[in-house]
Amino acid sequence: MVGAMTEPAPAFEESPRVGRPRDPRVDVAIHRATLELLVEDGYQATTIQAIARRAGVSAPSVYRRWSSKAELIEEAVFPSGLLAPEALSGDVITDLQPYCEQILTYLSEPPIRAAIPGLLVEYQNDPEMWQRVVERSVTPMRSSFRAYLAKTGREPAVPIDALFDVMLGALFTRALNDGAAGAKEFARAVAKVITVVLQQ
Predict the structure, then answer these.
(1) Which of 48, 67, 101, 127 could join 187 via S-S bond, C-beta 3.0 to 4.6 A?
(2) What pLDDT digit, counting tens, does each position of 127-144 carry?
(3) pTM of the predicted model, to two decimals?
(4) Which CATH number describes the domain made up of 78-199?
(5) What is the rounded distance in angstroms from the CA atom of residue 98 to the CA atom of residue 33?
(6) Can you tell me the distance from the alpha carbon of 135 to that of 129, in angstroms, rounded to the nearest whole number?
(7) In angstroms, rounded to a whole number, what is the distance separating the alpha carbons of residues 175 and 149?
(8) Is 78-199 the same fold as 1-77?
């Protein structure tokens, strides 16, 4: 453990001058450090100070970008622009199996699995934070799923949003409980469930 008197100087610190563009390398380093520490130490021990030391920056550099540890971790593990079903082969199972598998595989990555329990507590304490992550990550995925189903010409027997929630909830729960084990088979099973409730 590095003592306070022997910590290395930040690798690339930003100039405090107003108007100077921030170095994008700092953001990359902070995100990388966050993901590494989540796996090594868990959510609770992944502090802003620890992240800053690992990234080679000062804690104020982190706080200039994110107001809290929870906000930083959330952005690191749930970036915007997540997956969308793109294939349109005429067979819903063929289209959705790789989509479901990618979601499951992503959610099963060690830093994401390490972060989720802590973030769920944060969301319970801060509903606005939950709404922000929904708008940034879940809502675009929901919209792309709705657009995909529209292209198939098939109408689900239940509301589309409910069907999406069933799909994402199954993948989320599987990732937390079992990780990526059997991802391909489970993804195909979820795709089959979706197909069953689609009307011709």
Answers:
(1) 101
(2) 999 998 888 888 989 999
(3) 0.79
(4) 1.10.357.10
(5) 30
(6) 10
(7) 24
(8) yes
